[in-house]
Design brief:
444 residues, binds nicotinamide-adenine-dinucleotide, Rossmann fold, alpha/beta, 40% helix
């Protein structure tokens, strides 16, 4: 296709977006895709969610939400208005101008990236690629994915030119489930176009829905910026987890040390220790970078070291439980343990990579009888067993040999914990000052 025709596609698509006529599809309606769908629908876009999970698509069409940060009423409102719907039929892409890919990027059991979701999403889009289409890719991944993997997959041998006939952009998602002070709409959005035209299309498209757009010079910069953000967190969390172990050896209260350091008004950022990393991002994304660098014969030392320290935290936590029981002449073998909170962080229902899984696995392997209470997580599977949350924690609080606080959900009752439990291991400093110098509380 000639340059002038190509530029024409740019002008045509730009005009469609500016007139509010461009139709949008979001591939993958999970923690990232559903909030995005709602934000773009709120901005007036006609949004179709494409999901392989028929139950999720059906829920959206019934006006329901399965993501805690998104109210069902919000989904229902846009579905009723007619500018939000979901389907499992990728044939709907025939009518779509703007496609956003939000599929998972997990790790395989071996610790290597599992690119199968990206590949299948690109394969599903490829038959419908046509001049005048723009595609943004939002999944967290290694630098080079958009150019080396997505582009050839969606082209599938066709002679279309990116930046002229169609537009391809990487725009990392930064949503933080459970956070209320920054949302999908108010968190600045990085966009890295394959060409200047690609970046410009994405800017015009996203600017209508998201408050601040941050254009960068390439998809690789955008991909790397996302990994930098998450690796920064992973390394700092590892450092503070090691600091907790250092302070324990020096008989210092790590929480007091951190709070004191946090009074410095510049050059310091507060991170807190815990029972291990969790979620879909921090424990996973840096490994996309280390995998990529291994292929270039470079060893990412900070990532390896941080991963080693963080991965050991569940074991360290179990050691604290064992030592705490020891002080009351009990062994872990046969002890009744009540775990408070299994979600990977406070006030969310997300169990992905939750350190609670490792902690409970290790406790059980040592012969402990484990119950848990988490109002956000009614049940989960571990070691071929279904664990179900106690409907209420009161009785177990009194009967447990040790209560282990793994997640600092706001709804937990501090007073009841301190009054009723005989022994508490608090890995989140949930009990704060009340747990300090308290003979029945062991703090991480
Ligand atoms: N969850 C977060 O907090 C967060 C934050 C920032 C970035 N991210 C990144 O965003 C991406 C998506 O994460 P998520 O948390 O939304 O995952 P998720 O598992 O919640 O959602 C992904 C959805 O994609 C669907 N899906 C999978 N393959 C598909 C396909 N071929 N076609 C259509 N749908 C498909 C799944 O059924 C699922 O509903 C990941 O790369 C993740 O690292 C996540």
């Amino acid at each position: 296709m000639s340059e002038s025709q190509g530029n024409n596609q740019f002008e045509i698509l730009k005009g469609k977006i500016e007139r509010g006529e461009a139709k949008m599809a979001i591939v993958g309606l999970g923690y990232v895709g559903l909030p995005l769908a709602v934000v773009f629908a709120a901005a007036g876009y006609d949004v179709t969610g494409l999901e392989i999970d028929a139950a999720k698509a059906a829920a959206v069409n019934r006006g329901e939400s399965y993501i805690p940060d998104i109210a069902a009423e919000t989904v229902a409102e846009y579905v009723k208005r007619g500018n939000l719907r979901a389907s499992t039929d990728f044939g709907l892409l025939r009518e779509i101008d703007l496609v956003t890919i939000c599929v998972p990027t997990p790790l395989r059991n071996t610790g290597d990236p599992d690119l199968s979701y990206i590949i299948s999403a690109a394969d599903q889009i490829a038959p419908y690629l046509r001049p005048g289409m723009a595609i943004t890719f939002e999944s967290s991944t290694y630098p080079g994915t958009t150019r080396e993997l997505i582009l050839p997959k969606i082209l599938n041998g066709r002679a279309l030119t990116v930046g002229e006939d169609f537009f391809l952009i990487f725009s990392p998602e930064r949503i933080d489930p459970g956070r209320t002070n920054y949302t999908t709409k108010t968190t600045p959005k990085i966009i890295g176009g394959m060409t200047a035209n690609c970046g410009e299309i994405a800017r015009i498209w996203y600017e209508r829905a998201i408050d601040k757009i941050v254009p960068v010079s390439s998809p690789e910069v955008a991909e790397m910026a996302k990994l930098h953000e998450n690796t920064f967190r992973m390394v700092n969390i590892a450092y503070v987890n090691e600091l907790a172990q250092i302070c324990a050896k020096l008989d210092l209260d790590v929480w007091e040390v951190i709070d004191a350091a946090d009074t410095k008004p510049f050059g310091f950022m507060k991170f807190t220790p815990g029972p291990g990393l969790g979620g879909h991002c921090i424990p996973v994304d840096p490994h996309y970078l280390s995998w990529k660098m291994k292929s270039m014969h470079y060893n990412t030392r900070f990532i390896e070291l941080a991963s080693e320290i963080n991965t050991n935290m569940p074991r360290y936590t179990v050691g604290l439980v064992q030592d705490a029981l020891n002080t009351v002449r009990k062994s872990l073998n046969g002890a009744k343990i009540l775990v408070m909170g299994v979600a990977y962080k406070a006030d969310v229902d997300d169990m992905r990579e939750s350190p609670a899984l490792d902690v409970i696995h290790l406790l059980t392997a040592k012969g402990a009888e484990v119950d848990y209470y988490d109002p956000y997580v009614p049940a989960f599977e571990l070691d071929s067993r279904t664990y179900r949350s106690l409907p209420r924690p009161e009785r177990a609080l009194q009967s447990a040999d040790c209560v282990v606080i793994l997640t600092n959900h706001k709804v937990f009752d501090r007073t009841a914990l301190l009054r009723d439990a005989v022994l508490i291991v608090d890995t989140r400093n949930f009990l704060g000052e009340a747990g300090r110098d308290n003979p029945k509380v062991v703090r991480l």
